[in-house]
Design a protein that fits this description.
Blueprint (H helix, E strand, L loop, with lengths): L23 E5 L4 H12 L3 E6 L3 H13 L4 E5 L5 H15 L4 E4 L15 H22 L8 E5 L3 H4 L5 H21 L5 E7 L5 H7 L4 H6 L16 H8 L10 E4 L8
Helix pairs in contact: 1-2, 1-9, 3-4, 4-6
Length: 269
């Protein structure tokens, strides 16, 4: 058994270079896990951060406390981003609080394993696509009028968009839609010098994993991530340099790409 404890206070040792000074970022799903780690890293790099989340008030406040503890500035707004009006509201909130928007990280996620396609209800299919694919599009659409040359859009998909997953058929499909939209948006926005890229994580130990498997199949959680060459799941803080790289205005000739952070679990892209 490998240690799977997640603790984004590990970012206390993160060495920042000021890459995002004077930038404003929206990071969704930032009350825990990958989103929380990215929000903290962005703040340490000099960005002001708006945290989008749903329901986890304690987690959102923890993210803000960690950011403020490092001397950063962050605000949070709760809302279901699967509904377009809440995406509009989040963008307007960011503008009202900080006056601009430079970076958008679409990171919110949801998954619910089913051992048969017959068990995937209409409601589950819609919810999965709303939280992953629809929210990404709605929030990007709301943000675009306020983005400018040098702005960055970064989308968190999944390794499952590339290799599939027998128990996460709807989730893999929603992430596949994110990959296709990322590449299409990149083609559309490249002449405006707005880069659109993404991260496709492999097994990362986050609260979403414990929430997903705790009641369904605890044995899956016990073995989570041990089948990749690294022999363990990744931690959220191990991904943040990639998110900073994609947000960095000096990274000006990369768009429509996904970085694969998966402990050596290689696949064709």
């Amino acid at each position: 058994m490998v240690d799977k404890q997640f603790d984004n206070t590990d970012l206390k040792d993160y060495k920042a270079s000021g890459a995002l000074t004077e930038k404003v970022a929206i990071v969704t799903g930032a009350s825990s896990g990958i989103g929380q780690a990215v929000a903290i890293a962005y703040a340490k790099e000099g960005a002001k951060v708006v945290i989008g989340y749903l329901g986890d008030d304690e987690g959102a406040q923890k993210t803000i406390q960690l950011i403020e503890g490092y001397g950063g500035d962050a605000k949070a707004l709760s809302g279901d981003l699967g509904k377009s009006e809440n995406c509009d509201r989040l963008v307007q909130f960011a503008l009202a609080e900080f006056g601009q928007l430079d970076i958008l990280v679409n990171n919110a996620g949801y998954q619910y394993p089913q051992t048969s396609p017959l068990a995937i209800t209409d409601e589950q299919m819609l919810k999965t696509f709303e939280i992953k694919a629809f929210a990404m599009f709605y929030l990007t659409r709301a943000a675009l009028p306020h983005l400018k040359k040098g702005s960055r859009i970064i989308n968190t998909a999944s390794i499952n968009a590339y290799r599939g997953h027998s128990d996460l058929i709807d989730y893999a499909g929603a992430n596949g839609a994110m990959v296709a939209m990322t590449r299409s948006l990149a083609r559309r926005l490249v002449r405006e010098e707005i880069a659109v890229n993404g991260i496709a994580p492999g097994p990362i130990w986050t609260p979403l994993i414990t929430k997903t498997y705790a009641d369904l199949n605890p044995d899956v959680a016990d073995d989570f991530g041990e089948d990749v060459p690294a022999g363990r799941p990744g931690q959220p803080y191990e991904l943040v340099k990639a998110y900073v790289f994609l947000a960095d205005p000096q990274n000006s000739y990369m768009t429509g790409q996904f970085l694969h952070m998966n402990g050596g679990d290689y696949m064709s892209t």
